[in-house]
Design brief:
With 225 residues, the protein is an alpha+beta fold. The protein has 2 domains: 46 residues, Orthogonal Bundle (Arc Repressor Mutant, subunit A); 126 residues, Jelly Rolls, CATH 2.60.120.10. The strands form 3 sheets. A 6-stranded antiparallel sheet has the order 1-2-3-10-5-8, with helices on one face. The protein is globular, with a radius of gyration of 20 Å.
């Protein structure tokens, strides 16, 4: 099944210009893993941006600019050597993580996502990308299971990475880029034959609906990182 839902033109322009938040950049990159048309459009926009920059008159730099750049590079190298981060290609990926796009795998510093219980059918694994305003996470719905019904206090972006799910508005398959706004209530449900894993970007906490769901609110904390 081909990808049916895509980022709008404004988002692609912001992505190609580098003006989006890290979490939103990851969501569009994940979508483009599945979508040839958006990859082609991003290439076109990048070429346009490059052409515009080539026509801009160069500005003179201060004589100390080069020394400042080299100083910053030296500092970052020292920090990197001290911390000795684990390289992504040194991690033995588990079966579940290997089923996801490579660019998502490279954001997970362990062999498998660290899933957190949210409800009997739903688990979440945070992805830290240096965010201070958005929460980026993987959400996994078990086969045939559903999430609690919820509204949104801010924009929510979902990219389907594995399987499919449905809600009151339609059926969504791998690669689909879904955007929800405040006032849009829905209850995603995974297909009966396969679990569904999605990448989610939240700009504000979810608002669970229904009397029973208030007991789940502590599990749905909002945690940009």
């Amino acid at each position: 099944m081909s990808v049916q839902l895509h980022p709008d033109g404004d988002l692609l322009v912001e992505y190609s210009s580098g003006s989006l938040s890290p979490a939103m950049c990851v969501s569009i990159s994940a979508h483009m893993h599945f979508c040839d048309s958006c990859r082609d459009e991003n290439l076109r926009l990048t070429e346009i941006g490059g052409s515009l920059l080539s026509g801009v008159a160069p500005e003179a730099l201060q004589t100390s600019a080069l020394d400042e750049v080299f100083s910053k590079i030296d500092t970052e190298v020292d920090v990197a050597v001290t911390q000795q981060p684990v390289k992504s290609n040194e991690i033995q990926r588990g079966v579940e993580l290997k089923s996801l796009p490579a660019m998502i795998q490279n954001l997970i510093p362990t062999s498998e996502p660290k899933w957190k219980f949210l409800s009997p059918s739903l688990r979440a694994a945070a992805i830290p990308v240096g965010e201070n305003s958005c929460e980026l996470a993987l959400h996994k719905i078990k086969a045939g299971g559903s999430t609690p019904s919820h509204d949104h206090n801010g924009r929510e972006v979902i990219v389907v990475l594995k399987g499919s799910f449905s809600d009151e508005d339609g059926i969504y398959a791998e690669g689909d880029f879904i955007v929800h706004h405040p006032g849009e209530v829905h209850r995603p449900q995974a297909s009966q034959n396969q679990e569904c894993i999605c990448l989610s970007v939240l700009e504000a906490p979810l608002k669970l609906t229904g009397a029973f769901h208030r007991f789940l609110n502590p599990f749905f904390s909002f945690n940009p990182q």
